[in-house]
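Dissemination and training. As part of the outreach component of the grant, students in the summer workshop were shown how a complex can be specified as a set of sequence lines and then modelled as a single object. The example used during the hands-on session is reproduced here so that future cohorts can follow it. Participants entered these lines:
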Amino acid sequence: MPDAASATSPTLGFARAGGTPSRAVIGDSEFDGEFVSEFDRDTAVTRREPGVYDVDLSAGWTVFDAVNGGYLLAILGRALADALPHPDPFTITAHYLSASRPGPAVVRTETVRTGRTLSTGQASLLQYDAEGREVERIRVLASYGDLAGLPDDVRTTAMPPAIPPMDRCFGPQDSASDVRLPSSGTPVGGGSAIADRLMIKLDPATLGWALGAPSGKGEMRAWFGLADGRDADPLSLLLAVDALPPTAFEIGVKGWVPTVELTVHVRHRPAPGPLRVSITTRNLAGGFLEEDAEVWDSEDRLVAQSRQLARVRLG
Amino acid sequence: MPDAASATSPTLGFARAGGTPSRAVIGDSEFDGEFVSEFDRDTAVTRREPGVYDVDLSAGWTVFDAVNGGYLLAILGRALADALPHPDPFTITAHYLSASRPGPAVVRTETVRTGRTLSTGQASLLQYDAEGREVERIRVLASYGDLAGLPDDVRTTAMPPAIPPMDRCFGPQDSASDVRLPSSGTPVGGGSAIADRLMIKLDPATLGWALGAPSGKGEMRAWFGLADGRDADPLSLLLAVDALPPTAFEIGVKGWVPTVELTVHVRHRPAPGPLRVSITTRNLAGGFLEEDAEVWDSEDRLVAQSRQLARVRLG
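and obtained this result:
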């Protein structure tokens, strides 16, 4: 049995599989033999002092060598969950200022307002330049509440996406040799280690791009989960909305589609089991596009909605 | 001819009708006989020092005695347009912390990052409590660019809303006596002076609520303009997305629907002429709802998209 390591700073993020509370568990970093998911390990933040959190950005959540924006948002979301008196992001917006790199980073939070049912906070993720100075990578503005405290009424008129059963969908782990989806070993524009962290099964109607025949429609749909089986929670929803291939691939746009801004509404704690993510782009114009994502859980609840503004760099 | 008043602080917002540049005109407050629209007069900010702007929140843009959120966002947007090196909000998010009141306010801006084609800034609107201390009402995070510098390609697949011609739509100024739409004189829950500032003609399919027969569908559509004829510009789009009656009225939800957060993407400078605004709610659940707005100009361009998260207070 490993020695209990006594930590002087609380480390947040080592969550137990099953019944994981949405609020980051504040505790020391003692390893007690329990399962620690990749997501929680790699989004863990250590509070150095109130409002200041150290984090190590993992290289395991890259897409074409860029650290995935949803993974970064989950890190910021975890820090804010600790800093604010409410546990769950209700609405969270990130502006991506410059590309983050794997390695050390710091999150600085500010409490803007605390209320009875909602609190608002701001957070910055910063890294260090060659001279050791802090460079801001991402700034976030968010309002938090308690999802468990919401009334149970559901008058949602939106319908879950029409996506075939999981066994008729495809992911990088599938062996269909003519479907070349990015995986960590595939030299498609660089490393995409994130593919090994995720269980993604794409709707065949939205993987024409992988077969050299993009549909021309700005749509992307998939079953989604974490490869190690960790159930979804409000923080992993922040990853889920930004973890599918870009709709741009299906529109036939080649090249990089970096996110300028991403806003996520978390509307309900997701039930255990796989999620369905459906992304739509309807306004590709002037060198920008929007991606609207919906995340549905196994109980057919619309648990999260997001919109991002992304820049289309042609060629 | 009025005397030219020499101002020691630049006042932004007195814009000329027709060919109004999207960037707030920085100049003194000299009255030179030209038309000053209500919108520009009431969203004017005066730079006290770099990053600090004084403003007087007008009572003319209230809805049921509350200062309209889009009007407030336009004020913040104007200040940021002055503070940042780029003139147009590309993506702007506001969190509404507490209710603003007509009267004096201050906007404090911070430049987060300046780039070649995009800059990012943050802004707060504050008012004063009984002891004269500043109380933050709204915090904004936004990225700005230059709409005029965008390439002209349009691959938008979204279609303009199906709304009848303007002469078949209805607004508060119409004399159909059985259609009681909020106007400044109508005792529907308090003053709604904003109705006198706007030209709104609602699609008959979305005004069942005004006849006591809400459709049950979370939709609201209207032709939209400013009552004094000022053409739309990127800042007035921030007002347009939040100026229609709430979709909640058509869902049959009574009571106040305050905005928690509003994010607007401005995608193109609007052409002159009336706008069409189409708002949809698909996820009313747990005491919250989202309102998705699209704004289309006279050239059938999707010039702005927004989503807000609003709280449903029943009863």
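Residues 1-8, 14-31, 182-190 of chain A have pLDDT under 50 and may be disordered. Students were then asked to discuss how this feature might be tested experimentally.
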